[in-house]
Design goal:
10 strands; alpha+beta; ten-stranded mixed sheet; BirA Bifunctional Protein, domain 2; 2 domains; single chain
Length: about 375
């Protein structure tokens, strides 16, 4: 095992390196991340650290790695954009570290390694960790995961059985290793409990992690894909099984850096300081607006660096336009000088600056036309 560092404010890169190093020591090959512009999602961008990015080359990768590989993947989820700013753990662009073992679903190797990483490598307090596992009327109980967590010393009251809507994963479309149907299987999640006052969470009014207060933060998810599921919801044993263990890096960084939300982690520190100079009259909504600006601009820059098109209509162009317009809308709401802010923050990113300035001109032109029409209507 790698040396155990002290519980410190590790950033995403340090957490990723520690996770990958631990898996390399256990015989996993380190793979590079995929581009966010992957052919498998032509209208959007890579949305997870799952197998979708490697499925086309899976046979080759398995032959070269023996089926054990790990990597850290940037991900962009456009459907999470509305929750940015209001949910303290939600980003549109985030990073996940993942480890795969094709041909094995042994909980006895995956879960002890993960537990060691969280409690020893990162130094997380065991008494703040909660674990969920599948316990469902239709698909049964994932007894193997339960017994493994129990043997690792997870307290009985912190082992939470949940139904299939929470702890059973199924594939949306078929891929190379699921040619007979959609692959599926149970998954088990690890949550970190923070000191957030929330009566709903205190009284357990809904399943753990469902509340947006940020008290229970999902930091890891382990999937055990053992079956296919057909249209009649019948489970068919899979010819090729695999295990996947995933970490949410920004969420872990938030916990390790002891900050209130992911938008206050060191990833955004430099831009946040620059934005603060342009806030004229701070209010209770300022922090939310700044968080949205930080998230959307960083996503815009990263996607552009990966080859995303300029803002426009349809598909990826539309998503880029949405990121641009939403971020600049919030700048205007804070009465910022948009052009000056963009030049200051994106000084080392001239291509996105060009795209954003052009988009801002279009917004102003559109607003100007609407105002002219209103004035003409008022005169008639």
């Amino acid at each position: 095992m790698i040396p155990t560092p002290q519980y410190t404010g590790m950033d995403c890169h340090a957490i990723s390196e520690a996770f990958l190093a631990l898996h390399e020591q256990d015989g996993f090959a380190r793979l590079p991340p995929s581009s966010l512009l992957h052919d498998s999602v032509p209208m959007s961008f890579v949305m997870s650290a799952g197998l979708i990015q490697v499925e086309n080359d899976l046979d080759k990768i398995v032959a070269e790695t023996g089926g054990k590989f790990a990597f850290t993947q940037p991900c962009f989820r456009h459907f999470d954009m509305k929750q940015v700013g209001s949910d303290p753990t939600r980003l549109s662009l985030f990073h996940m570290s993942a480890a795969f073992h094709i041909g094995s679903t042994e909980r006895e190797t995956v879960l002890p390694r993960l537990w060691y990483f969280l409690t020893q490598t990162l130094g997380l307090d065991k008494d703040r960790l909660w674990v969920t596992y599948l316990d469902d009327a239709e698909f049964g109980c994932d007894e193997a995961s339960y017994q493994c967590w129990n043997a690792l010393g997870v307290a009985e009251e912190r082992l939470v059985g949940l139904g299939q809507e929470h702890c059973f994963w199924r594939q949306r479309s078929t891929g190379q290793i699921a040619s007979d149907g959609k692959k599926c299987g149970p998954h088990t999640e690890v949550f970190y409990e923070r000191d957030v006052a929330c009566p709903a969470c205190e009284n357990r009014e809904q399943p753990i992690g469902n509340c947006r207060c940020g008290r229970f933060v999902e930091i890891s998810n382990s999937l055990f894909i053992e079956n296919y599921i057909d249209d009649d919801r019948k489970l068919i044993p899979a010819g090729t099984v695999f295990a996947e263990c995933v970490l949410g890096l920004e969420r872990l960084a938030m916990i390790l850096q002891n900050v209130s939300c992911v938008y206050h982690t060191r990833r955004f520190e430099q831009w946040r300081k620059k934005l603060a100079k342009y806030v004229v009259a701070p209010s209770c909504s300022t922090d939310t607006a700044v968080s949205i600006i930080l998230d959307h601009l960083s996503a815009f820059v990263a996607l552009t660096a990966n080859g995303a098109p300029a803002p426009g209509q349809g598909g990826r162009k539309y998503l880029m336009r949405k990121l641009a317009r939403e971020s600049m809308k919030h700048m205007e709401a804070l009465k910022m000088d948009v052009h000056q802010v963009l030049q200051d923050i994106l000084v080392d990113a001239p291509i996105p600056l060009c795209y954003l300035s052009e988009e801002y001109s279009k917004i102003n032109k559109k607003v100007s036309c609407k105002e002219t029409k209103k004035r003409k209507t008022g005169h008639t």
